[in-house]
Each structure stands twice: as C-alpha cells, then as structure tokens.
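Inverse folding, one chain.
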C-alpha cells in the first residue's frame, strides 16, 4: 500500500529545510532588531477561541475535532486568538506595550492552490497595549524591513493600506448598521479575487434592504482618504521610518477576518498576480471579546509560501548548499585513525568558559574505499570546506602529520596531528 502525502502539505527534504531555516532566521533576526520578543502557544485550542471573533472565513477553514473527553478542539489556523488569550491571562503583570513575535506552524482546511496550502508557517508581529498610530506604522516598517532583508524592492512588492475606521464612519453616515457593514467588508475583501461584474453583483446582494447603492461603495473604496487625519499621520510616520516607498493607500483593503477595527493592510507582489504575502492591522477589541480587559492591539501575519514563490519567480532564491566545516578521510592504515580525529574535531578545544570551542561540523567517509579521488568527491558532495587526509606514511613519522585541504582555495598543507587534536579549529584555520 502506497500512501501519498495529504494534499496541501509539504515534505521538507534537507534542501527544503535549509530554505525554511534560512527564512525563519531572517524572520527572527528582523524581529529582534526591532525589539520584539518571541512567544509560542499550543498547536490546538478550544474551538470557541476561533468562533468568538475571527469570522466565517477562518471558521469555515478550521481543522476541528472532538477529543475523547468530548471537548471541541481545533488546530490553530492563526495565532492571534492565542496571543490575545495569553495576554488576557497575564494582563496585569505584563509590561506595556507588549511587543511579541512568533513563527507558528498553522493549518487551514482550504482548497490547496498556488500560494495557499493546508499547512504553512506564518511570521507574526504584534504590538499590544499601544493605541497610537505609531504602533501601526512600526509593524508595517518591520514587515518592510524583512522584505528588504531578503532582497525584495519597491519594484517587487507593495503594501496596500486601508482603514476600517474611515469606512465605518462613511458607511454609518449612509445609515448602515454594524452587522450590515461587516457583511459588506466580507464582500469588499473578495474584490481582488473576482471580476468587477461579479463584485458589483455581490455588493448588490450584500446591500439588500439598505438605501446604499453598490456604486457608492465602489466609489468609496476607489477614492482617496485625503480628509482623514489617521491615514495622513500614518503616511508621515512611514516616511520617517524610511518605508514610504513601499506603501500605498488603498481603501478597498478591509481584510477578511472579523476582528479588525482600524488601519488594515495587505502586502502583494507588484503585479498583484499572486495571493497576499502578508496581512494585518489594528484589532482593538479582540482581548475584550475573549473575556479580557479592553486592550488596543495591532500586528500582521506573513506566510512563507507566497514569499518563497515570489523569491523564486524573481530569481532571488539562493540555492543553499549543505554546509560542513570538515570531512575526514583515511588512506591505508590512516583509516584506523579516522574516528579519533572526527571525534576531536566535533568536540573542539576543551577549555573553560569563553575559551571553550563549540566544535566543528564534521563528517567522514562512510564507505570502504581507500581511493583518495573517490573520497575527495564524497567530501565535495557533502559541502565540506576543509578535508583532513590521514595518510599512513605521514602518521608513521616521528611527529605524525595530517594533510589539511582547503576545498575552496584548492590549496593543501601539513599540520602536526597533535596540534589538530588539541585545537582543531585553530589548526585548520591557520595555514
Ligand atoms: P491572514 O490574512 O489570514 O491573517 O493571513 C496572513 C498571511 O498568512 C497571508 O497573507 C498569507 O501570506 C499567509 N496565509 C494565510 N493562509 C495561508 C495558507 N492557507 N497557505 C499559505 N499561506 C497562508 C492572519 O492570519 C492574522 N491572524 C494576521 C494578524 C496578526 N493580524 C494581526 N496580527
């Protein structure tokens, strides 16, 4: 019986894993650079945590199940509700503002398609306990910093920024009630995914029973918000933070999740031919809805899937080779010494405190051949920076020697074995 992987999941072979780690390292590095601290939560939660306020879109995409105790649980489709729950639990003791990041693995039971899988990773940046527009601007600046860090320019990507606060005000001036506005947002969020005609029809449906025309909404989301102080202030801050060239106002951005309350944004490839790279915004009521105090919050999530697709398309995805510091091969009776040398290299210099060396990433030839050419080929395939050659005749000298071969510089030299055993990193480094 041959079992296939589940559709929408990915296997991470070592070469895929290198890319995943590389991206994760960039997420972490950029987060720390902006003063955020890492957190994580459980991968499953009570289903109620998501049904409370995330909105239909997420709830329809949940992997949920009942455990043996009859509890209704769900695999996390996002980490924002977990964040709110965790903050609520300790809100009295946490210093504000709370600036946290996370790189959770998430699950959504959606139809797998380009850029959307059933299992993915999502970098999250959130600032909680700060209602200033500076906090929104800062989150956007962190996202842009990451994009820059991995080589994406304003020619490659764009941050489209909208404002639910602004649209709320406009739409309630037109007499729309809260639930009608929320229904309308669910439709506006689909604008990019459907034809203009289909969008118009969906608006008409959503506006049944109100006096508002679909055209009014189309115009509203196509317009500028020049009279709006909050977005003006935001763009001034984005300029100070040096990221304005990546950003553009677009009132048709409202986000699909129900909990957003203010500034919202999505990041796209310039051609807008792919799904969103990231999405986020202000959600001032989520802690409150989940039984905590009133707590302003803002942040975003950026997935790994579209980002990798975009880098590949732009030819900016680096091939990351396997990295090994050192590979040991033995010729003739030299083979008998291989394990001792390998072990010394992996241990590194034995010393106290900061003089302790963490050891070299070392592997050795696992075959039986004593052929140098064959063994060197294996060393090269393993991505070794240096090869240590243990030759029978050199080991039998009064002061035994090994050959150190620098694979990149294509140079080689001899070193006393005793020196290598004592301090392998130094012995290899100093030619
Ligand atoms: P979201 O818009 O649902 O927001 O997801 C944000 C990003 O996660 C998307 O732009 C996309 O890059 C990635 N993503 C979402 N679903 C998938 C999928 N099925 N496959 C691959 N990537 C996906 C949220 O999740 C909010 N909780 C973000 C947030 C944090 N808001 C405030 N703080």
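Residues assigned per position:
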């Amino acid at each position: 019986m041959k079992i296939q992987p589940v559709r929408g999941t990915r296997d991470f072979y070592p070469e895929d894993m290198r890319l995943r780690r590389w991206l994760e390292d960039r997420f972490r590095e950029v987060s720390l650079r902006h003063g955020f601290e890492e957190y994580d939560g459980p991968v499953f939660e009570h289903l109620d945590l998501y049904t409370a306020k995330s909105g239909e879109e997420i709830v329809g995409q949940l992997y949920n199940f009942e455990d043996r105790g009859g509890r209704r649980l769900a695999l996390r489709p996002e980490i924002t509700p977990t964040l709110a729950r965790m903050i609520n639990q300790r809100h009295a003791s946490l210093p504000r503002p709370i600036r946290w990041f996370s790189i959770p693995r998430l699950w959504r039971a959606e139809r797998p398609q380009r850029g959307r899988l059933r299992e993915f990773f999502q970098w999250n940046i959130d600032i909680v306990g700060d209602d200033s527009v500076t906090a929104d601007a800062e989150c956007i600046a962190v996202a842009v910093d990451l994009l820059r860090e991995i080589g994406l320019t304003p020619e490659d990507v764009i941050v489209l920024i909208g404002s639910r606060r602004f649209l709320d005000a406009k739409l309630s001036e037109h007499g729309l009630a809260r639930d009608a506005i929320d229904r309308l947002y669910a439709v506006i969020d689909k604008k990019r995914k459907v034809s203009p005609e289909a969008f118009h029809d969906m608006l008409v449906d959503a506006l049944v029973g109100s006096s508002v025309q679909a055209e009014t909404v189309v115009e509203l989301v196509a317009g500028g918000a020049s009279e709006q102080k909050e977005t003006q202030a935001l763009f001034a801050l984005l300029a100070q933070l040096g990221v304005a060239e990546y950003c553009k106002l677009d009132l048709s951005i409202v986000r699909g999740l129900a909990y957003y309350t203010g500034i919202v944004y999505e990041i796209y490839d310039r051609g807008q031919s792919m799904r969103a790279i990231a999405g986020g915004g202000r959600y001032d009521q989520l802690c409150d809805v989940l039984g905590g105090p009133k707590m302003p919050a803002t942040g975003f999530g950026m997935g790994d899937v579209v980002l990798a697709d975009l880098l590949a398309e732009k030819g900016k995805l680096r091939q990351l080779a396997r990295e090994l510091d050192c590979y040991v091969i033995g010729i003739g009776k030299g083979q008998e010494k291989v394990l001792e040398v390998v072990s010394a290299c992996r241990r590194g210099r034995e010393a106290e405190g900061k003089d302790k060396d963490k050891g070299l990433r070392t592997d050795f030839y696992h075959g039986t051949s004593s052929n140098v050419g064959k063994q060197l080929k294996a060393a090269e395939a393993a991505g070794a920076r240096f090869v240590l050659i243990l030759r029978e005749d050199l080991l039998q000298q009064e002061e035994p020697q090994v050959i150190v071969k620098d694979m990149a510089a294509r140079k080689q030299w001899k070193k006393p074995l005793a020196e290598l055993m004592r301090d392998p990193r130094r012995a290899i480094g100093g030619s």
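The pocket of histidyl-adenosine monophosphate is lined by residues 78, 80, 108, 110, 116-117, 120, 122, 124, 126, 257, 276-280, 283, 299-303, 305-306 (CB under 6 Å). The mean pLDDT is 93.
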